[in-house]
Model the fold of this input.
Amino acid sequence: MNVKHLSISNYQDIQKISSSVKIIHLRKFASIKLIKKILKKNSGIEKISLSKYVYTRSNSHVFDFIEDNDIEVSIRNKGPGRPNLLETIRI
Done:
């Protein structure tokens, strides 16, 4: 199964969302306003992923709103930036 996903960094990225996108990754912030705009553009979103940093910096009401709309939340526990070459070799 090939699911289309898209990374969102700001409000302008919302225009890139098509009806085939099922997974959204929030790169810099999460807000209820942003989630509402995403759902207005595509109500078929199944999953929202975000980094642990974005998760800790966001208000809990955002995640309540996401769950109220039956959307799965996935928190990626990965450091920022590209992986170090040595880390890549060890994997």
Observations:
- The beta strands are 4-8, 21-26, 47-51, 72-76.
- The helical segments are 32-41, 52-57, 60-68, 85-90.
